[in-house]
Write a structure and sequence with these properties.
This protein is of the alpha/beta class and 289 residues long. It has 2 domains: 161 residues, Rossmann fold, CATH 3.40.50.720; 119 residues, N-(1-d-carboxylethyl)-l-norvaline Dehydrogenase, domain 2. The strands form 2 sheets. A 6-stranded parallel β-sheet has the order 3-2-1-4-5-6, with helices on both faces. The model has no long low-confidence stretch (mean pLDDT 97).
Length: 289
């Protein structure tokens, strides 16, 4: 099994690390807030590195899972940055949800170390990771992806190779535009049914069992029905970040995204109202007033 460096041990990074460890991979962890990496190391037996460069040194694969473009760029650069620790033949799996241009800009930095960079963002929630059923959206060199497949297969059911570097990041934004549209539609329709006198749980059951049913409705059921007690899976602040990336990409390629524009405005309203740290399903709470 490969030695895998996991850079970023937030919700998704940690869940993927647990699956990697369970498949027998040796792990090295790095997180800017070290306590999170230390906690995960206690669960997995992994070693914790003091810098991203140290984590990457000696690894055959590096899996990166960070919050945004700024965090990604900062992590790769500098004497303690991820790129400084890379050796020839290492494959870097950039799974953060970032702009395609951001991952493409990192390619020379990684390439000059003799390593390969793939963009491999994932679609799915933490429970989906835990079941080993993520979808990986990959861009970059096919041979490098083949070398990474045993590690990816530890937490993914589907791995799609979509084209050159940046194709995975592009597809992730396209997928998220659909997810966020569904989230807003369910929020609005659920509140409509409630305000018109239909029981919340009954209305949701109809949505899930009708032609509108989708996997999203199944795994967000508790969040919509019991918002006060269901743990946060993905914050509205991160939704706002992604919608900005979607809007920027749409402008760059000349794609009309009216629904995404409406969603961006509503999510911005929610964040301004103090909902940024709440789950994306809390749009329904906002709309109830």
């Amino acid at each position: 099994m490969a030695t895998v460096a996991v850079v970023g041990t937030g919700r998704m990074g940690a869940a993927m690390a647990v699956r990697l460890a369970g498949a027998g991979h040796e792990l090295v962890l790095f997180n800017r807030t070290r306590s999170r990496a230390d906690e995960l190391a206690g669960q997995t037996g992994a070693r914790v590195a003091g810098t991203a460069a140290e984590a990457a040194g000696g690894a055959e694969l590096v899996l990166v899972s960070l919050a945004d473009d700024a965090a990604v760029s900062e992590t790769y650069h500098g004497p303690d940055g991820l790129a400084a620790g890379l050796g020839p033949g290492v494959v870097v799996l950039e799974s953060s949800t970032i702009a395609p241009a951001t991952v493409r800009a990192l390619a020379p930095l990684v390439g000059e170390r003799g390593a390969a960079l793939l963009d491999t963002p994932v679609s799915g929630s933490v429970p989906v990771v835990q079941r080993g059923e993520l979808t990986v959206l990959a861009g970059g060199d096919a041979a490098a992806l083949a070398r990474a497949r045993p590690a990816l297969d530890s937490f993914a059911r589907h791995v799609f190779h979509l084209g050159p570097l940046g194709a995975g990041a592009t597809m992730k934004l396209a997928v998220n535009s659909v997810v966020y549209a569904i989230n807003q539609a369910v929020s609005e329709a659920l509140v409509l049914a409630e305000k018109a006198g239909v029981d919340r749980a009954a209305a949701y059951q109809v949505f899930a069992g009708s032609v509108a049913g989708a996997p999203f409705l199944d795994y967000k059921r508790d969040a919509f029905l019991e918002p006060a007690t269901t743990p946060v899976a993905f914050t509205l602040a991160l939704v706002a970040k992604d919608l900005e990336l979607i809007g920027e990409l749409a402008s760059q390629v000349g794609a009309r995204m009216d629904l995404a524009g409406a969603g961006r405005a509503l999510v911005a309203e929610a964040v301004a109202a103090g909902y940024g740290d709440r789950d994306l399903s809390a749009l329904a709470v906002l709309l109830r007033g």
